Amino acid sequence: MTAIQLPKAVQELLENNKKQTTDREELIRSGGYLPPSEELLIDAIVALSMGKNILLKGPTGAGKTKFAETLSSLFERPMYSVNCSVDLDAESLMGFKTLAYEEEKQTIQFVPGPVTNAMKQGTFLYIDEINMAKPETLPLINGVLDYRRTITNPFTNEIVTAVEGFGVIAAINEGYIGTVPLNEALKNRFIVIDVPYIQGEQLEQLIADTTNLADKQLIERFVTLSNDLITAVSQGKLAEDAASIRALLDACDLSTYLPPKRAILRSIVDKLDEDREKAFVENLADTLF
């Protein structure tokens, strides 16, 4: 696989061991995601720079998409996205044919899809919830994910070979309804990076940087709420959705205009299915707010 040339800022992040931690965090934060540990970012950068594909694995709302966007920003490369579902087909990946007019004559043109665009332009391809796709769909891009970096477009018969700079980032939520286990042939094409929830001081910083909430005391209480929710999920008392960092950030935003408990109700509680879980989260909110 072709290695990706690293931008100067990323080279400094990897090579300059004397660089201050605060400077590194500022660089990371500029991409919108502050990972739970710097090793996660370093490992992802090293894998992508060597031409490897990476698979971000973790609970919903842990920041996998933001992680991918940050990597795209650090490498200074745009990112085409594929959102997987049971309806994903070859056209969703490669593109489709459509009628067009040239000098008043009707012609058939091919509109390239995200895989084709990313390969030809040398950008990143982000495949979200890759285990939501039907097992028979993804083998189409096996050649894209291995050393060949090549695919035959089934609609044009064109052989597409990725240009320098092309890289693949995928994300997976395991154990959800509608997901299927990745087959070994597909999984073996990725370097797997486990993305846990952001907690503690890093979550405080994320709330301060990405939401309208400025009240330090409220921010600290939301961080405590997040920790309690994560603990409850690990104990099997709540579904993973309850501890979504994305939902927590929504609650923080709403709490700048609404009472915190009502913000939590709209952003977290009402998304849960079981009354028992709703009551549990409401009780946590009552103790903190």
Q: How would you portray this structure in words?
A:
Helices cover 43% and strands 17% of the residues. Helix 9 packs across helix 10 (216-234), helix 10 (216-234) packs antiparallel against helix 13 and helix 11 (245-254) runs antiparallel to helix 12 (260-267). The chain has a five-stranded parallel beta sheet. It is built from 13 helices and nine strands. The chain starts with 7 loop residues before the first helix and ends with a helix. The protein has 289 residues and is an alpha/beta fold. The chain is elongated.
What's the CATH class label of the largest domain? Alpha Beta
Strand order of the largest sheet: 2-5-8-1-9
The termini sit apart by 53 Å
Query: Order of SSEs, N→C?
Result: HHHEHEHEEHEHEEEHEHHHHH
Pfam families: AAA_5
Family: Belongs to the CbbQ/NirQ/NorQ/GpvN family.
Protein name: MoxR family ATPase
Organism: Oceanobacillus jeddahense
Pick out its properties.
alpha/beta; 2 domains; five-stranded parallel beta sheet; two-stranded antiparallel ribbon; CbbQ/NirQ/NorQ/GpvN; ATPase_dyneun-rel_AAA; P-loop_NTPase; MoxR family ATPase
